[in-house]
Amino acid sequence: MSDTPSDPMLGRLIDGRYQVRSRIARGGMATVYLATDLRLERRVAIKIMHGHLADDNTFKSRFVQEARSAARLAHPNVVNVFDQGQDADMAYLVMEYLPGITLRDLIKDYGRLTPEQTMDILTAVLSGLAAAHKAGIVHRDLKPENVLLADDGRIKLGDFGLARAASNNTATGQALLGTIAYLSPELVTRGVADARSDIYALGIMTYEMLTGEQPYVGEAPMQIAYQHANDTVPMPSATVPGSPAQFDDLVAWATARDPEDRPRDARVMLDRLLSGEPLGSPESGSVRGGAGATLASADQATTVLTNDAHAATMVLPGEYSDIADAETQIFGSTPLAAGAATAGSSGSEPPTEHGALLATKADKRKRRGYLLFVVILLVAALAGGTGWYFGVGPGSQVAVAKTVGLPQEKATQKLTALGFEVVPVKRTDPEIAPGTVIASDPSGGNAPKGSRITIFVSIGPKILQVPDVIGAPESDARAQLAEFSIGESIREFSTGAPLDTVMAVLDATGNPVGPELAERAPVTLLVSAGVIPDVAGQTVDEATATLDAVGLHAEAGERVFSDDFADGAVIMALAPSEAAVRVGDTLTLRISKGPDVVEVPNVITGQTIASARKQLEALGFVVTSNVPQFLEGAVVAGAQDVDAGKMAKRGSTISVNFY
């Protein structure tokens, strides 16, 4: 689903820590966004419950339960949950971000999967599900949409406890249909679920991976539910001829209508799958195809061994099949005929010579028998030794456990317990926390017991030298700082830096960066916006338009007298404080009231110099006189040097004298 400008969450900072970047997906209960954890400087997926569900305690409790369930699981095949909280009226859940697709997307793209692909995915899902079952957690919503296939090859199980319905009363809809396709019979008939219900859903998923379709379809959800409760899931080979018989047995075992006939949990099923033993429960009749073939092969091996031993006894004389045949070949007749001929003819070979020849042949047969017996013993010993070496000895093949996402110590213990030699290699990573396994070589499959497994362990992001870009054009600076996360530039007015050149590089706290910084760390460029335009002498409207053109706002301020600017003209634009002026700031306009002048009154109309002084000083003039001050109250003013009725500037001097 593409981002829309109307989404109010885009760009929002949640709980002062998680900066929302883009929308990943939207469901009936929550929306998932890609966000940046500003504290740990890594990408995360943040799931935010829809606002209209915030007052529903049932949904809120299930939302929190998902966080608690997943947080109890530390397993490479389970999506990690990092945090859970409430920001105002918004409940959120912070999870590991896995760029990639879901199993549903894979099935849609390929139609159906190969047995090898199915085996890989099934093993990974069973591993994660086994960890959940061991922790006492039943997933209850196992389906291809909840199996995540990361771009780096990791396979993870997610969405523990997430309710897909829009409300408590929802009975239809695509989300519910998707869930019904994987409901076990006991959930349909009795509404109860345990680990074996997850196994049933996994069996349906296995059928779907191999065939590209679900075993039951119907126009209404109740039709599908009825088939789950009353029908036997068909074999994959019935839909896709040539599908391995072992998968028929696995699907039959996992989807048995009676939960008692299924594996009791994912660990039992996983162990049986990896051991090569027959799949299914013979007592329940769920063994079909491949398992039967395996048992038949064992019987045949026993029979062949018996026949071979008997045949070895039969052919010891070489070309003779038994003693009677040998005597016939030696004497030209059976022993009885030879005896008769001896009794009736004196020219025949004496019987004793015949007996000696027969004894010689018998000795040869005996020696050959001992030799063949010794050869059989040697072959058996060699076969046994070879079987031991490749079965449980140093040459045996062992499944390489998944260790991605595990702490180094736990990953080492896990691989060592399987008999591998573990070699840790440190590697920088801008997203994975230090001490966590990033990858392994080999990353999966089987490897000889005792062989070397290399695990790559994160030491955090690479520390880089920060290029000196002060004074460089903004475009050049961005190219040189490409290994960092560069945000939107801040433009600041300056008299000393040319337009569009970099004045500083700021870190996430707003302070200038040092000489070194972690890769992909957020940085902000402080770029020169040039000089603030001079608006002195312009009208208020003209000054406002001039400042708006460079990204500044203007507001009218106080009006003051000015000898230099006419009434109504702008004297200057003032910044709100001593801080530097940046694009988007507001400046205050100081406006002129014109020169400060006043009309001079007539002060020589029979009043004393003292009263004239008082009248002129009240108007702001400076008064001088040729009469001593102590006589001003007694002397009548006779002349003023600025004629009455003229305009004079406040503060100017007027002389009042006596004639």
Automatic annotation (TrEMBL):
- The domain of life is Bacteria
Identify the residues that the record assigns to the PASTA domain, covering every copy: 395-459, 526-593, 594-659
Q: Which keywords are on file for this protein?
A: ATP-binding, Kinase, Membrane, Nucleotide-binding, Serine/threonine-protein kinase, Transferase, Transmembrane, Transmembrane helix
Q: Where in the sequence is the signal peptide annotated?
A: none
**Does this entry carry the keyword DNA-binding?**
no
Q: Where are the transmembrane segments?
A: 370-390
Location of the Protein kinase domain: 18-274
Q: Name one GO molecular function term.
A: ATP binding
Q: Which InterPro entries match?
A: Kinase-like_dom_sf, PASTA_dom, Prot_kinase_dom, Ser/Thr_kinase_AS
Q: Which SUPFAM superfamilies would you find in this protein's record?
A: Protein kinase-like (PK-like)
Q: What GO biological process term is on the record, naming one? A: negative regulation of fatty acid biosynthetic process
Reactions catalysed according to its record: L-threonyl-[protein] + ATP = O-phospho-L-threonyl-[protein] + ADP + H(+); L-seryl-[protein] + ATP = O-phospho-L-seryl-[protein] + ADP + H(+)
Q: Does the keyword Ribosomal protein apply?
A: no
- Give the enzyme class: transferase
What EC number(s) does this enzyme carry? Answer: 2.7.11.1
Q: Which PROSITE patterns match?
A: PASTA, PROTEIN_KINASE_DOM, PROTEIN_KINASE_ST
Q: Which NCBIfam families match?
A: PknB_PASTA_kin (NF033483)
User: What's this protein's name?
Assistant: non-specific serine/threonine protein kinase
Can you name the source organism?
A: Glaciibacter psychrotolerans
